[in-house]
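Assemble and predict.
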Amino acid sequence: MPRVDLTPMVKPRSVAIIGASRNPNKVGSVIMQNYISAGYEGKLYPVNPNAEEVLNRKAYSTVLEIKDAVDLAVIAVPAHIVPLVLEQCGKARVKSAVVVSGGFAETGEVKLQEKITEIAKRYHIAMMGPNCLGVMDTRSKVDTLFLPMNKISRPKVGFVSFVSQSGAVGSTVLDVIASEGFGLSKFFSYGNAAYIDEVDILEYLMHDEETKVVVLYLEGIKRGKEFVEIARKLTKIKPVVVLKAGRTSAGTTAVHSHTASLAGNYAVHEAVFRQFGFTVANDLSELMYFAKIFASEVRPKGNRVAVITNGGGAGVVATDEIASSRYLRMAEFSEETKRTLKKTMPALVNIANPLDIAGDASGDRYRQALDAVGNDKNTDMLLVIVLYQTPGADPSVTNEVIQKKRALSKPLIVISIGADYTLRQAKLLEENGVPVYSSPIAAIDSLEALFEYAEFKKRAERR
Amino acid sequence: MPRVDLTPMVKPRSVAIIGASRNPNKVGSVIMQNYISAGYEGKLYPVNPNAEEVLNRKAYSTVLEIKDAVDLAVIAVPAHIVPLVLEQCGKARVKSAVVVSGGFAETGEVKLQEKITEIAKRYHIAMMGPNCLGVMDTRSKVDTLFLPMNKISRPKVGFVSFVSQSGAVGSTVLDVIASEGFGLSKFFSYGNAAYIDEVDILEYLMHDEETKVVVLYLEGIKRGKEFVEIARKLTKIKPVVVLKAGRTSAGTTAVHSHTASLAGNYAVHEAVFRQFGFTVANDLSELMYFAKIFASEVRPKGNRVAVITNGGGAGVVATDEIASSRYLRMAEFSEETKRTLKKTMPALVNIANPLDIAGDASGDRYRQALDAVGNDKNTDMLLVIVLYQTPGADPSVTNEVIQKKRALSKPLIVISIGADYTLRQAKLLEENGVPVYSSPIAAIDSLEALFEYAEFKKRAERR
């Protein structure tokens, strides 16, 4: 039984925006406008004692005036008014609240933060914040982020949920996710974590069928014992990618002055993360790479990778990475595969892994190679390199890769490096569920993360 | 005294294209068309015994018919005709030749390759290839690449020269360079290296004032002793970034079946590379990251990095990377800097490195921070993080960073992560000489490479 229920916050039937005003630059108004633009279909109530109307909707002077039941109150008023507003929410039986206002513990106002936390608990309001961006759900179209649409794109609907204590890291990653093909399920940026913290959110996401991958940016962990408990359960159900800031003592000091979190000893954290089957990222880019592969890939049955390439050099670079990785191995093609390839490939193609199908390979040759290698019982994962700069590579290759991806029950990812023409083809691939990497290291690290998690689950299921 | 002179190939006053035909899909015609589109200003002579005219120019039946002196012959005819054509070039005293035709040692035709090499040497023709993309020079507008313009962008004029035995890796990197801000000086893809090899090219680039950075993709090294000699001299003059394929035994096998090169023992190669001050990349992405920083950065005086950020979390991630790097250290601000910052920054900004100037920082606050930290005598390099998703960051920040970069004699690089809005600002920064990285790891690895090379040069100069 979770100590708070996040459902009214994530799937509200009605939202009150406290602090919405006629000034379009005010935080409350930006949030209100974002709800309208996003097409939120529940009821929307602006609350402002000094306005009759906000954005063509009747404004209420307090939340108590709203006759309807309010599932979520978004609070964007000066810090010293928050206690009053929250009391009113309590009396109006509002189920959840996102306090976006800053000016609490992060600026030394610890007492004020304790006060609002006490109110929230007394009235059983699931309170997120204060000093946070709040919640986004691409399905219910809840969006409490006070970020203008022109600076940060909103992601499409997907199955990756992203949790970040830091607002800036959160919005940056959100922006990147918007440009990726895999989409987003939910986003949480929980700020000072006066009440709702990472444990509550992870507990919610564990049971959320719209979340298949959890991505986590952590600075500190507040409730260690509970975190360990939920982590142990969560990773048995879905992959969790984590970036923990404060690996070094300099980083730890920086964490403390950022969110007053205690970063703790990183080595201990990392050991614990790995034991529980977390996928540990060292960098925001890795966080994205790993999210991408988990979002679209099936679990590999083993560690043997086949490489198909239309550029010999790129095949060599990938082979080096695979052969020097901790867990992956280059596949050894079966005799049957070799026979098939000998029949279908031009005489000059050397039948080996990496399979260099040469610079004049177009869709037909890729299909023949993908068919033979995809069916090979000694191959667990396919790494397909497409250098679109070569004379043969054109949209027919993109099409064949997409077809094969749909038919295949093994992981298949693409490495493609280049500018305009290449980026257009890469986008097509990603929109059709094929993860594309522009760096061989990133691609192979991601395959390795996928394999490691598959092994972890195998072990967990055997127990 | 170099054994071959590449000047007639790189800066030809006249080019004969042997194999140019009226069929626009033929290799010779693509090359001819590329010369015309690129605006090559020297004389251009199509050679084709079966045509009167090619692309509105009088065609010659053989190179012997051309009355003018020919500096460069681009040869794109079937392999078995190359000996005849090359003999004619010799008799016509053609100074250099790029043999793009394939069908020599790489397909087992070793004898045919020996034959054309013998002819080239006998007539003192500086011959590149066969089986190569050849040469590009953004200033003389020489461009022997038979790659259609729509699939691969051509880079702008710059000071980075790129040498790649592999044609596919070469054209891929070329395409990426075209989308980067730093531009290209020269590109060489030398194929089978029957005569001209990497040593000849490096020797040319060492003396080339239009080349300030050399980027090298190597599979094997043919003339080890000469390579060591030129490497020893070259790195004392300009930075050399190298990616050597065949780090592992699987990679080595793959190299052999690609260009029949002997990859050799990678550990030995790497040790030698590092001893000679090469910057060693492990991946095509690293090759680009390193090229970017060397292309635009001054040499740092020390290893102390200051971080300015508008996102606390991103500052922590960067701090972790710096603190855990082999050579870099977080700078300790001087008392004077601290006093200045205390005066200019808002009260809530914690005066420390990383300097988190908060999510509402716009151009003004960045300028004040850049001024104070830029002048700090305890700071050798500036790492500026701009998260454009925050409310304060807008084009005024871009502008201030560009201004500071122009005035500062220390390295200054930017980390910026995001989609559309961010990418537009990043492009502006790069066009104005500020290297931008979308990954903290890439940024800090690049700063480290810059520092390592500066230290190498210091040691070399002391000797």
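The CA atoms of residues 337 and 343 of chain B lie 10 Å apart.
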